[in-house]
Amino acid sequence: MKYTLLIALIFVCIPVAANNTDIHENAGTRAMTFLKIGVGAEAMSMGESQVAAADDLYASYWNPAGLARLRQPQLALMHNRWFADINHEFVGFALPLKGAGTFGASASFLSFGELQGRDRDGNETTIFRPYDLALILSYARGFGSSLAFGANAKFLREQIADESGTGIAFDLGGLYNFPEIPLALGFNAQHVGPRVKFIEEAFGLPFTFRVGVAYRLWSDALLLTTDIIRPSDNDIAIGVGAGYTIGNVLHLRTGYKYKIGGNDLGAISGLRGGFGLTFLRFQIDYALIPFGVLGLTHRVSLVANF
User: Fold this and answer.
1) Angle of CA points 270, 271, 277, to nearest 5°
2) Which of 33, 54, 238, 304 has the fewest Cβ atoms within 10 angstroms?
3) Greatest pairwise CA separation for the chain in angstroms
4) Domain assignment of residue 151, given as a range
5) The pLDDT of residue 19 is above 70
6) 150, 66 contact by CB (below 8 A)
7) CA 206 to CA 200: how far, in whole Å?
């Protein structure tokens, strides 16, 4: 009975999409907005609600405290085929050291492909290739079997034609696992740092605060998650997700992300879905995410344990 009530409580958080899609007053006022693009197909397919469930190298994005759950070295790779020929890549490595915590290093790269430059009169100039880059160092440590904290330090660079901007940012996450019940709580304060100067103006970073809960049932076969996401440049969003594992091999996942006031690209754009396969020391995951009129996007990610 308590499981039924918990499931109902989590999924009642999925509201009916509203027609009000007013633009937030801070939209478009932040630098390095690529930092808000999530990594890892598993997390994305579960409504981007992973702050209390992250337990692999992709935790460096969702909640660096989750890196404390690693028990062996791990490599992670992700390819995100986004819309309009934009590609998003992630690569990372983490090393847990007994008694010293978990150390990690990763990189996130967003490429916009080739763009045709034009002058003020609209005449063609040179081809340029804009990109965004984040180089990340991570550390996490557990305190007993229930509590863990983690942090990231990030070097950021944004290049557009001949102009560029650089900056630094930090994340701080915490995780608590209840000892008597399979329930976890987590938080993550993301993208904390000084303003970034681009050309002649300086802009703040897209600070985001996440808090969430994860509940595991049936010997961890079923995972239910809920996150509340508060960005500094947009409305509050709620993500919910469910994942079911069959025979420790096949992982089925679904989720929904809803922005309070209505999803900008329509109700369908909040849907998430995907699956994963575990074989020996490897896990490969896929996520399908609609972007309204912009079409479907695809993420493939890999985790390898050593």
Assistant:
1) 135
2) 304
3) 69
4) 2-116+125-305
5) no
6) yes
7) 19
What's the half-sphere exposure (Cβ side, CA atoms, 13 Å) at 90?
27
Tell me the DSSP string of 168-228: EEEEEEEEEE-SSSSEEEEEEEEEE---EEETTEEEB---EEEEEEEEEETTTTEEEEEEE
DSSP 8-state code for residue 40: -
* 195-204: long-range contacts, CB 8 A cutoff, minimum separation 24: 195/31, 195/167, 196/31, 196/32, 196/156, 196/158, 196/165, 196/166, 196/167, 197/165, 198/31, 198/158, 198/163, 198/164, 198/165, 199/163, 199/165, 203/29, 203/30, 203/31, 204/29, 204/30, 204/31, 204/232
Count of the separate structural domains present in the chain? 1
CATH assignment at residue 75: 2.40.160.60
- 248-282 per-position pLDDT tens digit: 999 999 999 999 988 888 888 899 999 999 999 99
pLDDT digits (tens, 9 = 90+) for 193-249: 999 988 778 899 999 999 999 999 999 999 999 999 999 988 999 999 999 999 999
